[in-house]
Amino acid sequence: MNLTEKQISLFRTLSIIAGIFTMVIAFTMIMSLIQLKSSDPLSSPALVAVYEQFDRDPDNAANAEYVRSLDLVARKAYFTARWQLETGSYLLVIGAALFVLFRWLTYSNEPLIKSKLPPKPVLTESRDRNRSYLVISASAVVVLAVISSFILRPLLPDPGRAGREKVSSSGPAGELPVPDEINFPTFRGAGSRGIAAGEGYPVEWNGNTGENIRWKIPVPKHGKSSPVIWGDKIFLTGADGSALEIYCIDKNTGNILWTGSGSDFPGASAETPESDQEAGMAVPTPAVTEGTVVAIFGNGNLVAYDHDGKLLWATNLGVPEHMYGYSSSLLIWKDLVIIQYDSDTRLAVIAIDLKSGKIRWETPRRGRAVNSSPVLASFEGIPQVIINGSPEVTAFEASTGKEVWTVPGVKNDVAVSPAFNKNFVYVSANYEKLIAIKAGKAPVVAWEDNTYTPDVSSPAATDEFLFISDGTGGIACYDAGSNKVLWENYFSEPFYASPVIADGKVYFLDRKGVMHIVKAAGTYELISQPELGEDADCTPAFSEKRIYIRGINNLYCISND
């Protein structure tokens, strides 16, 4: 490329600017790393002190609010600094690349210009040599700055990865809920584990064109509850103010078979308590078993219907007081309906007799109200209801409500339900940390990490892998037995729906209704990204090679046939 002297002068100037830019970014990054290394906001004495005070008195509401606020500020400061450092790394590469490009353009053309000029005096040649030495030195400084910043980057303090010994996954394994190819009975499937049985589920569809959309129906009333399935029937809920409803829908045709009321019974509450306005009163997902479906709403109304639409029983558990509203989904274990009841004035796990609607047992819980949902697992031969609370993770014996084990958990606003496999229980909260617990009568925190901390979407785990999606658009796969991130990827939209593992794949549904389908493996492989055509926050249900997704307005049946 032959350039004019003016162009060469321009590129020479641009190379100087790029070099200065790169050195400034590198210096700023190095100083920030040193500062974070010496004064980590997550380990500040003030934060540690309030944590200790909160651990001594977890039921103090005022103290809890102060801890939450201070912790949130510290977490935001940490993750903002981390984002700035990661962004700075890319800026360094760009700046260095531009510097090299502009220097190459300058030096590759300077001989052409010099050949056309008269010979220079010795003094001028000496000045040029000095300038060349200066350029070479500056180039070396830029390269060293880039290298050193990347070397120092891993030194960023990460308390979630420190101070824990690796715990072996050997020992008595837990018994896992068995997914059913036909029935998808609770939020996230059997045991609320996030795993579906069967194979042949679609990986391509388009809600706008109708590709692989077997049917699509409008849901009569708004709600964020996810669909559940028993046999040929789908159940989900909706609400409009104090008008609460449960719907039974034919799985094959999309016809609404019947609508049941969640508010028209003696003793029903007509209140619409404070809640997140975007969520509403129909956030908890119902639970269904042979012959009976049970639904709970944001005002504590609890109703049970048979599969033909007959009201079996109804009661009100008391109106929950919670700034974000009540959102915990139901479980059914044998003849018991398991309820995680969270209110600012009452924290409990409750078992209701499936046939009569009477309370069989109720166990108070410590801490403060959260928005997670319980899971049902079995460790050491004991079926357990496990709750990601604040500040504790607690397991209760499903048959009696007796507390089996508890460990310190997360302290922020908790909306993420636990994930589990035969060895570990995993819990998290946004801006805080991910915790893996070796479950049992003597539980041990196996490892912690704060790289990925989902805020609404709940993880799903196999014995080998833990899959996570978060509110920033990130998805990740961890080694289930350690805090090693095996792969990670970022998309433009956040995730509220929880991932579901099915047929060797993980289905991640973002808030715009795009499903990101990846291989359920330790290496990242994106299979497809089909679009629903409308926003979606609800977790899909899987049954007999079909996927059922509730969008913001419609319910979809997606099928290859």
How would you concisely characterize the structure shown here?
With 561 residues, the chain is α+β, with helices and mostly antiparallel strands. Helices cover 23% and strands 30% of the residues. It folds into 2 domains: 5-157, no CATH class; 190-559, 7 Propeller (Methylamine Dehydrogenase, Chain H), CATH 2.130.10.
Topology:
Layout lengths: L4 H34 L6 H12 L4 H54 L7 H31 L42 E2 L16 E6 L9 E3 L2 E8 L2 E8 L5 E6 L25 E3 L2 E5 L4 E6 L4 E6 L14 E3 L2 E7 L4 E7 L5 E6 L10 E5 L2 E7 L3 E6 L5 E6 L10 E2 L3 E5 L5 E5 L5 E6 L10 E2 L3 E5 L4 E6 L5 E6 L9 E3 L2 E5 L5 E5 L6 E3 L12 E3 L2 E5 L3 E6 L2
Parallel strand pairs: 1-27
Antiparallel strand pairs: 2-33, 3-4, 4-5, 5-6, 7-8, 8-9, 9-10, 11-12, 12-13, 13-14, 15-16, 16-17, 17-18, 19-20, 20-21, 21-22, 23-24, 24-25, 25-26, 27-28, 28-29, 29-30, 31-32, 32-33
Question: What labels would you give this structure?
Answer:
561 residues, alpha+beta, Methylamine Dehydrogenase, Chain H, 2 domains, 5-stranded mixed β-sheet, 4-stranded antiparallel β-sheet, 4 helices, 33 strands, globular
